[in-house]
Amino acid sequence: MKIGTRQKVQNTIPTASMADIIFLLLIFFMVTTIFKMEEGLPISLPRAESGTELEREKLMHVWADRFSRISINDKLVRVDNIDAIVSKRFEENRSLIVAFNVDRRTKYDLVSQIMDQLKEANAVNVTFVSVGEEK
User: Fold this and answer.
1) What pLDDT was estimated at residue 132?
2) Distance of CA 54 to the CA centre of its chain
3) SS3 7
4) Nearest to 71 by CA among 57, 58, 82
5) How far apart are CA 38 and CA 13, in angstroms?
6) CA separation, residue 92 to residues 73, 85, 114 (Å)
7) Distance (Å, rounded) from C-alpha 63 to C-alpha 60?
8) Sequential DSSP letters for 44-62
9) CATH top class, domain 59-131
10) How far, in Å, CA of 66 to CA of 107, rounded?
11) pTM for this structure?
């Protein structure tokens, strides 16, 4: 009787085909995954049925452009003077509406300063409009 040598049993996991399995799982999950875009909140904004022409005395235009120039009713003003000008017009007409027109390239710091001045003048009826050419 021949007595053979004992073979040692190895406690390892064969990893030669592990990369193939990983790539197959990766492809499987890429194909079966559904990416849903965030839709946000469903908001229904009211639409105006018809516009009405306002009298010139009830409307004040404040313009700000990308060069930090500010004009109120076609007169150039400084940021510090906005409060006094709007307050004076607001005392004359309590139903004054301020149309705040801003170029889309205007620095937000300037917009914030103008809004602070309007707040100090107690201008409660303010309309915001963003204008500018598309590039």
Assistant:
1) 46
2) 30
3) coil
4) 82
5) 43
6) 16, 11, 21
7) 10
8) -----S---PPPGGGEEEE
9) alpha beta
10) 7
11) 0.56
Helix (H) or strand (E) holding 11: none
- The whole-angstrom separation of Cα 37 and Cα 47 is 27
Q: Which of 34, 28, 85 is nearest to 60 (CA)?
A: 85
Is-contact 103 132, C-beta < 8 A?
yes
Pairing of strands 75-77, 70-72: antiparallel
Tokens of 32: 């079966």
Q: Where are the domains of the chain?
A: 59-131
| Radius of gyration over every alpha carbon of the chain, rounded to an integer in angstroms | 34
Provide the token pair at 112.
């914030």
- Both structure tokens of 52: 């009405």
> Is the CB of residue 101 less than 8 Å from the CB of residue 126?
no
Q: How confident is the model over 48-90, as pLDDT tens digits?
A: 666 666 666 788 889 888 888 999 988 899 999 999 999 998 8
| Token duo for residue 96 | 């004054």
- The rounded distance, in Å, linking the Cα atoms of 90 and 109 is 25
